[in-house]
Fold this sequence. Notes:
This protein has helices at 10-22, 38-51. The protein has 55 residues and is an all-alpha fold. The relative contact order is 0.18. The model has no long low-confidence stretch (mean pLDDT 86).
Amino acid sequence: MAKIEIKGLPDELERVATFLKHNNITFIIAPDFGNHSPEDQKASDQLIEKYNSND
């Protein structure tokens, strides 16, 4: 299976995730183990929890 990697701040990733969800496109947000500020890491963790749930 192919993958698309999108790099950016949590705000940019949320815009993409919202678009995908509204267009019924299956996706997951994978953890990024880069060197990020604590605020960006917390926001990324919240995105993963929000969009990777099975609802």
